[in-house]
Amino acid sequence: MSGRAGGRKLRAMATQPALDIEILRASVSGEAITPEDAGYNAARTAWHLLADQRPALIVQAGDADDVVEAVRYARAHGLRIAAQGTGHGARAGASMGGTLLLRTGRMNRVTVDPSTRTARVGAGACWSVVVAAAAPHSLACLHGFSPGVGVAGYVLGGGLGWLARRYGLASDHVRSFEVVTVDGERLSVDAHREPDLFWALRGGGGAGVIVTSVELELVPLRVAYAGVLMWRMSRAPEIAEAYRKWIATAPESVTSSLRLMHFPPLPELPAGVRGRALVQLTFAAVDEPGHAAALMAPLRSLDPEIVQASVIPAATLGELAGDPVDPLPVRSHSRLLASLTPEAVDTVVALAKPAVTVLEVRHLGGALRRPASPGAAGALHAEALVFASGVPVTPEHELALHTTFATLDTLGPPSDRDTVMTFAGPGDAALPAATHERVRAVTAAYDPDGILGC
Predict the structure, then answer these.
(1) Secondary structure (3-state) at 307
(2) Nearest to 326 by CA among 55, 83, 88
């Protein structure tokens, strides 16, 4: 008895406490890794390096059958389960004692059906893989600002990306999920099969199950007019107020953000930004290129020091913001604002200190306010998301970040929730109260003992 065949015969034993790690290893096509194994440290490391995860056991799943085996093993041994792809959403302070960490990064197969404009995406795939598969068909996906983010976690949290004002959240464009329950059963989930779970998974988090694949709607898009404008930081008050006025009339074909950036003095950064403090306006427009260029003219007339604006392949939008791909020990905080007032803009500009690497105002609205097929994330009525992040390299940096985060909490007027789920930290309300209660009820129905999570 060996490999997968042996594993299928052993499934009936999965509720027996005597089941040991060697039987699990024989049951899966991936790997089962204990703290004593040489690969443990590499396997436990999340993208978010401040999350010092030390689980009792790690399973690197190769497919959905491995997920089933891992779940049944965890239940038999009284372990909680935490599922992760890239670990972008891992939390600092989550030690994971008594937890089986289920890593899905090897489940990264992507298939595109151009006739239906859909993609079937494994739970461990990053957006860059989906983008590459869709681009030859002149199709695009609703990915975020970084190509290295995992698809499953992104859509479970809503998903706020470069095409958000035109098409809304990524979670509203999910056709179906394949999941594994805490009892080790596989389910297909869509608007007709397990409809309450389908609703909850689209922007409400994991909802008491483990997602193994997602079917996504793609959009027809070959090129976009996009780019970056930069000014020295001393012009931040002027540029930020001009941006506030500009977004008031910007069409929903344009998604943009304004960042107050302190670029580190790293040799891999371009000489024009390395070690400098700059105001960065980043935008993507899906209009006809000539019309899109005209829309940006008021901001280009403010004499930016750096201009990189042109028609680009839609497949390169994920690289536009220049978000880091490599893991970082970063702290961050965000808040949704019902409206972007002059006072809020002034406060954000005043917070642009060297310890804060990024202070961002991301323009919302447009299709985000009227989802065609809303899941738990629902409609976002906020005008802007304000976000701050930095790397706490010294106690002084840590204090400066804490002060900045506390000040963001005072910005107003607030929205119907603190932030969106993919930006949420401990204690943040990422859903309206009534929606949160409904998601909790769905989660309890599928995971009554609270097995999932860390």
Answers:
(1) strand
(2) 88
CB–CB of 235/279 below 8 Å?
yes
- Given a cut of 60, whether residue 172 has pLDDT beyond it is yes
CA separation for the pair 280, 236 (Å, rounded) = 10
Structure tokens at 333: 């905080």
Give the integer Cα–Cα distance in Å for 360 and 393. Answer: 21
- Domains belonging to the chain, first-starting first, are 3-103 (3.30.43.10), 110-220 (3.30.465.10), 223-423 (3.40.462.20)
3-class SS at 363?
strand
Secondary structure of 321-343 as H, E, C letters: CCCCCCCECCEEEEEEECCCCHH
- Model confidence over 338-367: pLDDT tens digits? 999 999 999 999 999 998 999 999 999 999
Q: What share of the chain is helix, strand, coil (3-state, %, to 5)?
A: 30, 25, 45
The Cα-based distances of 76 to 20, 103, 280 in angstroms read 10, 19, 52
Reported as a single tens digit per residue, the pLDDT across 123-156 is 999 999 999 999 999 999 999 888 888 999 999 9
Buried b (16+ CB within 10 A) or exposed e, 320-341: bbbeeeebeebbbbbbbbeebb
Please give the model's pTM, rounded to 2 decimal places. 0.90
Q: Residue with structure tokens 């976690």?
A: 153
Distance CA 341, CA 329 (A): 32
CA-closest candidate to residue 305, choices 386, 224, 226, 239: 239
Q: How many CB atoms are located within 10 Å of the residue 40 CB?
A: 16
Instruction: Please give the structure tokens belonging to residue 359.
Output: 């202070």
Q: Distance between CA 104 and CA 212 in Å, rounded? A: 8
In degrees rounded to 5, what are phi and psi of residue 308?
Answer: -135, 90
